[in-house]
Amino acid sequence: MMGSDLTKRIPCARCHRPGCTCICGLIRPIANQVELLILQDPQEATHAKNTAGLLHLSLINSHVMPSNANTPLDSGTLKEALYSGGKCPLLLYPPIPEAKSLGLLEPATPPAALPPEQLRLVVLDATWRKSRKLIYLHPLLQSLPRVALENPPPSLYLIRKADSENQLSTLEASCYALQRLEQDRVDYSPLLDAMREFVARQCAFRPAPNCVKND
Fold it and tell me: Strand runs (DSSP E) across the chain, as ranges?
């Protein structure tokens, strides 16, 4: 019994989660046309309810860059991550109403229509407070053209507290933004279905007030 318990705690070599919560069976390989760059707060990387791990493992064209809100990234390193390969980076983030009063740079004008293969979607995987701090710390992020989701579907993410029903997980927001940029040429429904299963598993471990059972 003790050996079995130990095996369940050994981190998976692929998803880095304990054996009992391994998500490798949920991975849905998808060849996204727009590259995805995830700037991830280190605490999110180890959070059991984090969805960016499943997102990254499923999307063939994706990268994760650790980004601590308390320590600015080297500007040269960040610039290389954003613009490498001659791609045009777009930041997935809603408007910041008080941006001007805080002295933040204005976002660049979105580019004219570019092929999806020339775009790189930048996503901040952090709490709202930390994601905003990341933007404040990095003028490069402030100046990026932005993508914002309008009237997204209700969130599937029933396992973490949200301020509204349309406040999405990193996985959901990325999938919907990629669909838009790729003009629905790539089907992300298998990955969204995998997220539903991920949520159901988390609810089984520790039921949250809003968790619902799948029929």
Answer: 35-40, 62-66, 88-92, 119-125, 146-147
Q: Bin 199: left if φ > 0, else alpha if -120 < ψ < 50, else beta.
A: alpha
Residue found by looking up tokens 């952090």 in the block: 126
Q: Which of 38, 37, 17, 39 is nearest to 26 (CA)?
A: 17
The model's pLDDT over 177-208, given as tens digits with 9 standing for 90+, comes to: 999 999 999 999 999 999 999 999 888 776 55
Sheet architecture: strand order including 62-66: 62-66, 35-40, 119-125, 88-92, 146-147
- Rounded to two decimals, what is the model's pTM? 0.89
56 token code pair: 């990254």
Q: What is the rounded distance in angstroms from the CA atom of residue 160 to the CA atom of residue 119?
A: 30
| 103 domain-assigned | no
The tally of domains found in the chain comes to 1
Tell me, yes or no, whether 196 lies in a domain. Answer: yes
Residue 110: inside a domain:
no
Distance CA 1, CA 5 (A): 6
